[in-house]
Amino acid sequence: MVLFDILRFSFSSVIWGILIACICMGLFIFLIKGWYKDATFSPVSYIVGVVLFILLSFQCVLVVGSLKIINMSDDYENRISAIVDNYYSPSEEVSTDQASDVINTIIDEYPILHYYVSGGHFSGYTAKELPHAIVQSLRSFMHWYVFRRILWCLAFVIIGAIFVIKTLSKSYSKQKRNRPQYSRQRVSRRRKY
Prior knowledge:
Elements: H1 2-9, H2 11-35, H3 43-71, H4 73-87, E1 93-94, H5 96-109, E2 125-126, H6 130-178
Antiparallel strand pairs: 1-2
Helix pairs in contact: 1-2, 1-3, 2-3, 3-6, 4-5, 4-6
């Protein structure tokens, strides 16, 4: 599973991901309490909050791990260049099968990459161009991957907010109903003669 590989790859990604999820949950609670000032959380609200925190933590860990992979992409490119230089001359065109072999070699060294780079998509590149093409493909995939994780986070927050507000609205409306109602009467400002 990708989460366990990220844990092995970078424990700090897990710490930062959980910390970001805590901040998101703090903002979530702050906004809900700001909107419904007199509302109280019900037990169902707390359950929804715990589930939301777990889902956000998972997504945030994936985002932070992905950003770390993007930051290390220059190291991957250097390593791929070293691998390619050992087997091919710089001007030699590398076939799809040879590119797959290079990708499998780099995945063996960095197992986390097998979630993001698959072999065989690279043809028509010289040995000198191949490392940059592989890493550029990795970067573009990782940016899209991070964007999707953020969209998942937003979806979870919206769904969580709907559930929490539904559980709050009942107690909130009861409190509103129990408030004393004052009738408004129109006061005439004309003098009576």
